[in-house]
Amino acid sequence: MSNVAQYDVESIRNDFPILATEVHGKPLVYLDNAASSQHPVQVIHAIKDLYESGYSNIHRGVHQLSQDATKAYENSRAAIRGFINADCIHEIIFTSGTTESINLVAQSYARPLLKKGDEILITHMEHHSNIVPWQMICEQTGAELKVVPISDQGELEMDRFAELLSEKTKIVSVVHVSNALGTVNPIKEIIDAAHAKGIAVLVDGAQAVSHIPVDVQALGCDFYAFSGHKLYGSTGIGALYGKEKLLNKMPPYKGGGDMILSVSFEKTEYNTLPYKFEAGTPNIAGAIGLGTAIEYVQSIGLGAIAAHEHGLLEYATSKLKEIDGLRIIGQAEQKAGLISFVLDQVHPHDIGTLLDMEGVAIRTGHHCAQPVMERYKIPATARASFAMYNTFAEIDVLNEAIKKTIGMFS
Predict the structure, then answer these.
(1) Please, is 328 exposed, middle or buried when counting C-beta atoms within 10 Å of its C-beta (0-12, 13-18, 19+)?
(2) Is the pTM of this model over 0.85?
(3) Same domain for 326 and 266
(4) Which residues are annotated as catalytic?
(5) What range defines the domain where residue 314 resides?
């Protein structure tokens, strides 16, 4: 059923030890990948090997362990640069994840720029991490937050985007792939329209980079943020891409060690890029694990992964549409491998609990996207999200588990 003849999903699954787990005596069917993906042995071993035989703090150390750890850490930065095709490694900032990356841009780029009467443009499908930082900036600067609405199908209303984009707009911040709907937004079109008016664009790529190829130079975005734990890496690590000319002009986001060249009580001289934005001891193991995760994804190929996941999405959508009383929330023409749904007379939390008894792990709730739930007048959804290691047989298990759940409430 996969579109990729050479795609060996069973070989891939063998690289993920947790997939052999049983839950409540049933084989684990892990469909919560939009929250966090699982880890291949290559990533597990890279982190384990660091702690067992190669750990040291990085930068400045002259001893061999520090030199080796620093090299591995910076090799991961280089891997990220290549993965998203940034122009140079100085444009890659290690952060704790997408949330910190967005806050960095909000405080370091937007806050010094904005004044009362200026506008920030986001969309109705944003994760809370791409809403709250901008609300905070508005409180701090007097700027106003504008929101692009979404259609019943879960697509941005691009005519309204064009209307809202004005001379008052100073930055656009938009999600690449919606974590609540699966919608793949027309990012290139958004960036081009914003740039035609001299407006910078930040893209939240947390749900995109593990599913579709991303080329920041081809997109032309000014900033691009993503997290490691949705890309087969660890929690607590992520990256921010920013155009070098913008990053050079931005003040540091945090102060402390490693982001300085010299410190006196009279004056501090800040470090060069990318270290100017990396205060304190970083998540060394997380960064090295993320570099390994990227190498693993590249060894399979994002094109092949995307095709496989699209096949899963089409199959799951067709199966779930056959179930009476099930309604899919978000049916955009361009979607990633994610399905949010509700059942008549069954709360999503009950769906998640009963599916768990069948070994099926999904996510239930508002998915840190409460405005999306309000748009569709629902309290929450059940969300099944797919990864490179999921199979069509697992979709069948999900399908039967949902039917069994409905039967219990009939």
Answers:
(1) middle
(2) yes
(3) no
(4) 368
(5) 9-30+301-409
